[in-house]
Design goal:
The chain is of the alpha+beta class. The protein has 11 helices and 6 strands. It has helices at 88-106, 108-133, 138-158, 162-188, 199-204, 212-245, 251-280, 282-290, 295-300, 302-332, 336-340; strands at 3-13, 17-20, 23-34, 43-51, 65-73, 76-85. It has a 5-stranded mixed barrel. Helix 2 (108-133) packs antiparallel against helix 3 and helix 6 packs antiparallel against helix 7 (251-280). It starts with a strand and ends with a helix. The relative contact order is 0.09.
Amino acid sequence: ISLHARALVTAVDNHQVRQNLIIKTGSQYLTVRLLDGPYAGQELTAANLLTGRMEYDEFYEPGATILVEYDARDGQPAHGMARGHHRLHAQLLLLGLFAALLVLVAGVTGVKAALSFVFAALVLWKLFFPLLLMGYAPLPLGLALVALLTGVITFAVGGLNRRGLATFLGSLLGVFLTCALALWFGRLFHLHGAVRPYAEALLYSGYHDLNLRDIFIASVFIACSGAIMDLAMDIAASMEEIKRNRPDIGLFAHLASGLRVGRAVVGTMTTTLLLAYSSGHLFMFLLVMAKGLPAVNIANAPFVSAEILNILVGSFGLIAVAPCTVLVAGLLYRWPRAAANPRV
């Protein structure tokens, strides 16, 4: 069983490192002192394998703190491998600051949101990803995942009331529409799914039966489901406030008021998706522009087409969720109990 520990680099051996311009290949050998774990304080040699790809490789100097994977042989650490600069403590610090700020600003709702965040991460890591690798159909599995997360998060944050129900139903309608559009235009665009990073490497790892196209389609509607849920919650809360302050408001006036709120929010949310997706692939766009490729070649490339589908289909779902949530909330608040007590 491999062990992991934080380690301090005390010396480096670069004799087997070959450098060609900015690219380094070969092996860097490090002398490290383990800082924690069962062998804390002991030293061993750890190899740092350089592949020549800067997105994967790291080059170390004495004094660096790294993560080391090693074996235990005859009561001594051996066969060490460098696994990157140690970032776990900084990640935990950032996560703690995020949770603290969330609770400080939102109070009890912030606690619920933080727990929902952890729950979503666990569901993805412990349920969704393993089931995909086991060969379950990506689209039904993705829709079930979104329904589960949407239900837990909306009812935990919004409450078991009409606001939570309107958010849940409006979100699902938007996600189902996004899924249908992604499936349709994915076929029209002739996207095979391997346009995503690591997709080909996953096939070479022994999972050659995976349906990459459907996994890609599922990633499209899962990626925008959070924004859809956020917009649905905003509109459902607005519909609740309108009904609470104007309990005698008619159905069509109620719907019109909700749509006015939806128009104001949708205008910025679609731009949010554009900025989020495009900035995530900033270096890719810089590369194709640096090569001076014609715009038609860039737009027609598979990986660019995948981002265009991501942005536009996701934005379509965001736009559609506004009237869907308004309609669902308007009908829910027509119930007799809702007129008497909109918070029920």
